[in-house]
Specification:
The chain has twelve helices and 24 strands. With 488 residues, the chain is of the alpha+beta class. Residues 234-248 form the Glucose-methanol-choline oxidoreductase N-terminal domain. This is FAD-dependent oxidoreductase.
């Protein structure tokens, strides 16, 4: 019987495990975290509790010189379900032009015509994608205020046009989170060999072929063998495993004493991410109220072009029914947040190892806001969010007043605010870019170039980040990746 190891039980990995097992492959699914027993995972109102928890890898960037010298927190799921167990469940396919660009620039076979049917199949199969849920009163007013600001109301941003303000489509059923682990892998868990709480150190490569993985290190090392190895550990976890395996830039590996198996300069490069910056409001006429069980604290977002001539929206504010203080000093306990969002970043960063061991943290550099165009777009989004908060649906109905940035920060000083407050939108991609050129880490069938029997199937292969949340594209990559594995 054909056998495969899938590393990571997150969005892509859970799908790959299910599809391979259904096809008769003996699958070993390895997850560094534990099972999703934390009740906060399943209640959408409690997602904020999961940051810095046992289910969060709790990564931080190196200091970001263009973002106030701060180290940005990058939450990533360390649990069955992966980051889909921690996120806001928002389902965004992205723009057709995103995928046509992938195809045009070397990821052949990944055009919109290729991927759109896969999205449609996912949404009509195991994973519920819905906007059929009641809006919180503050969320309904935010949508109304955005329309008063001049944005169109878009009833289906996944229908081909992103622009406008919309109720979010989410993966939720009966007030509970549904992710690819619970929808795909968990129902057939008895068909899988599942190892939890086991961290993969590296891939075992013999004579140019991946034959298994090493769990743990030193005297605790255990080897698991299979015909094929599929890395689905995400845009941070996957390149880290490749680098510890000796697959990466030879000079960096040599410097750390890691034997070079394959000089692959693209591993860890091309890192980029969407960014957010908060605009927080208090309400003087009536309270928003605390989060309610089974109700997500974000239910709406918008897509908007910060300047004329753009082919697609470059901003995507996400709207929260709570004040998202983050590192800011709380000023009250009630309110709402219009979180300005940048979704077409030009800045590109990198990921490197600091040492060869499991305990050595990766040096993650997003190069956040390094490109001035990113700061300009995010600042424009903040200004728009400020304007929305002054519209009658919020200012008059709720008595909304801006708490942050606050009236002492004029619009022409918003760029400084953005650089001091920008945080991740949780959408890191690109560190194992697919393509047809010499720098591409994987080919368009997601095979690691230069190593047989090894594929990468997760968000790290995205050449450029799609316009919108990355969970849906990661699921699509999981489905297509499984097909590629089965095709041989």
């Amino acid at each position: 019987m054909r056998s495969a190891i899938v590393v990571g039980a997150g969005t892509s990995g859970a799908i790959v495990a299910r599809r391979l097992s259904d096809a008769g492959v003996a699958v070993t699914l390895i997850e560094a975290g534990g099972y999703d027993t934390n009740p906060a995972i399943h209640d959408p109102s409690r997602a904020g509790e999961l940051w810095h928890s046992a289910e969060d890898w709790d990564f931080f960037t190196v200091p970001q010189p263009h973002a106030g010298g701060r180290r940005l927190h990058l939450p990533r799921g360390k649990v069955t379900g992966g980051s889909h167990a921690l996120n806001a469940m928002i389902w965004v396919r992205g723009a057709a032009s995103d995928y046509d660009r992938w195809d045009r620039e070397g990821a052949t076979g990944w055009s919109w015509a290729d991927v759109e049917p896969v999205f449609a199949a996912i949404e009509n199969d195991l994973l519920p994608v819905t906007d059929d849920y009641p809006l919180s009163p503050i969320q309904a007013s935010i949508i109304e205020a955005a329309v008063q600001e001049g944005l169109p109301h878009n009833p289906n941003y996944n229908g081909g046009v992103l622009d406008g303000v919309s109720q979010e489509q989410v993966t939720m059923r009966d007030g509970r989170r549904v992710n690819t682990w619970t929808a795909y892998a968990q129902p057939i868990a008895e068909q899988l060999t599942i190892l939890t709480g086991r961290e993969v150190h590296s891939v075992i490569v013999h004579d140019g072929r991946a034959v298994g993985v090493r769990l743990g290190e030193g005297e605790e090392t255990e080897e698991v063998r299979a015909d094929e190895v599929i890395l689905a550990a995400g845009a941070i976890g996957t390149p880290v495993i490749l680098l510890r395996s000796g697959i990466g830039p030879a000079d960096e590996l040599d410097a750390l004493g890691i034997p070079v198996v394959l000089d692959a300069p693209g591993v860890g490069r091309n890192l980029h991410d969407h960014l957010l910056s908060p605009v927080i409001f208090a309400t003087g006429k009536k309270p928003v109220g605390p989060p309610q069980p089974g109700v997500s604290v974000t239910q709406s977002h918008l897509f908007w072009r910060s300047r004329e001539g753009l082919p697609e929206p470059d901003t995507q504010p996400i709207h929260f029914s709570v004040p998202m203080w983050g590192e800011l000093e709380p000023r009250g306990s009630d309110g709402f947040t219009l979180m300005a969002g940048l979704v077409t970043p030009y800045s590109r960063g990198s990921l490197r190892l600091t040492g060869p061991g499991l305990a050595d943290p990766p040096a993650i550099d997003l190069a956040a806001l390094e490109d001035q165009r990113d700061a300009d777009a995010l600042a424009a989004s903040v200004r728009q969010c400020r304007r929305i908060g002054t519209r009658p649906a919020l200012a008059e109905e709720w008595g909304a007043t801006e708490v942050y940035p606050g009236p002492d920060v004029p619009d022409d000083a918003v760029e400084d605010w953005v650089r001091r407050t920008a945080i991740t939108y949780h959408h890191q991609v690109g560190t194992c870019r697919m393509g047809s050129d010499a720098e591409a880490v994987v080919d368009p069938q997601l095979r690691v170039r230069g190593i047989d029997g090894l594929r990468v199937v997760d968000a790290s292969v995205m050449p450029t980040v799609p316009t919108g949340n990355t969970n849906a594209p990661a699921a699509m990559i999981g489905e297509r990746g499984a097909r590629f594995v089965l095709a041989g």
